[in-house]
Amino acid sequence: MPVIKVYASLRRLVNPPTQIVGGSTVHEAVSELCSTYPTLREKIFLDGKLRQFFIISLNGRHIDLNDGLNTPTEAADEIAIFPPIAGGNVE
């Protein structure tokens, strides 16, 4: 079964931040996690679509380089969810 890891500010919503989930696609896997943690769904989805600037990767590869949320998953896969990150000081 795939593993999902959440990072940065999302860690306060999912405890522990690494979860084993089911699902044959990234969408199914993330939806299962969101069923357990409904606040996560509110945070990362808007009208059923991934909010802008959230990044989901499958085995280190951005899902947009595959088939987006419809990217198939396998038992040994690792899904990572990253929230928008901004900041820094440019001088």
Can you offer a commentary on this structure?
This protein has 91 residues and is of the alpha+beta class. The protein has a single domain, classed as Ubiquitin-like (UB roll), CATH 3.10.20. The protein has two helices and seven strands, in the order E-E-H-H-E-E-E-E-E. It has helices at residues 26-36, 38-44, and strands spanning 3-6, 18-20, 45-46, 49-50, 55-58, 61-62, 78-82. The strands form two sheets. The protein has a five-stranded mixed sheet, with helices on one face. The mean pLDDT is 93.
List keywords for this structure.
globular, 24% strand, 91 residues, alpha+beta, 5-stranded mixed β-sheet, single chain
- Strand percentage: 15-25%
Q: What is the number of independent domains?
A: 1
Number of strands: 7
CATH-assigned fold name: Ubiquitin-like (UB roll)
Structural class, judged by helices and strands?
alpha+beta
Low-confidence stretches: none
Q: Please tell me the overall pLDDT.
A: 93
State the helicity in percent bands.
10-25%
Question: How is the topology of this model organized?
Answer:
Elements lengths: L2 E4 L11 E3 L5 H11 L1 H7 E2 L2 E2 L4 E4 L2 E2 L15 E5 L9
Parallel strand pairs: 1-7
Antiparallel strand pairs: 1-2, 3-4, 5-6, 5-7
Task: Write a brief structural summary.
The chain has a single domain (3-82), classed as Beta-grasp domain (Ubiquitin-like (UB roll)), CATH 3.10.20.30.
